[in-house]
Design a protein that fits this description.
The strands form 2 sheets. The protein has an 8-stranded antiparallel β-barrel. Strands 3-4 form a two-stranded antiparallel ribbon. By secondary structure, it is mostly beta strands. The longest helix is centred in the first third of the chain and has 22 residues.
């Protein structure tokens, strides 16, 4: 009799667990590379353009100033090489938002222009402490295949040229859609 009663309690609990597991979002991992070209050369135009010049020099940085703002339209590629297939664009801006640290306020849409995610976008809004080895980008929304997405991105500087300020960033996105 006791086992029959236990079975009546266990079966509904198992059914509830199965339903929760069936509707839980799966985590999607995307890796791409963002090419931030501040100084153009013969092979690539500038994709990050300063639109506001700040007033206060940053410590130990002769180029950038507190308040500098750059509009971006950076290529997103499958691999770090400039000739790698383009999968999208990072469009938005970054602003040098700290008077004492190399830290940006980044607001960007990662707009996908190729493959099965063509026409979809992710929106990120984050503090980017650019000298840290790994930085986190919160995902604040998405559209198309990423409608209602939540998650985060991990950013690592793949290459940086201090003379030109050009950089290639590796971005790993972890998304719940």
């Amino acid at each position: 009799m006791a086992s029959k009663y236990r079975m009546r309690l266990i079966l509904p609990a198992l059914l509830c667990l199965a339903l929760v597991a069936a509707v839980a979002p799966a985590t999607t991992h995307l890796r791409f590379y963002m090419h931030d070209i501040v100084t153009a050369d013969a092979s690539s135009p500038a994709t990050a353009v300063r639109v506001v010049r700040g007033v206060a020099p940053l410590p130990n940085d002769p180029t950038n100033r507190f308040g500098d703002m750059y509009a971006i339209d950076d290529a997103l590629t499958e691999a770090p090489g400039a000739s790698s297939p383009v999968v999208g664009r990072a469009q938005g801006y970054y602003l040098f938002a700290s008077r004492t640290d190399a830290a940006l306020l980044l607001s960007a849409n990662m707009v996908f222009t190729a493959g099965k995610r063509n026409g979809s976008a992710l929106a990120v809004f984050a503090r980017d402490a650019i000298l840290d080895a790994v930085r986190e980008l919160p995902v604040v929304g998405g559209s198309g295949a990423f409608r209602g997405a939540t998650g985060y991105g991990l950013v690592r500087t793949h290459t940086f040229n201090a003379t030109s300020n050009n950089a290639v960033l590796q971005i790993d996105m972890y998304l719940d859609v």
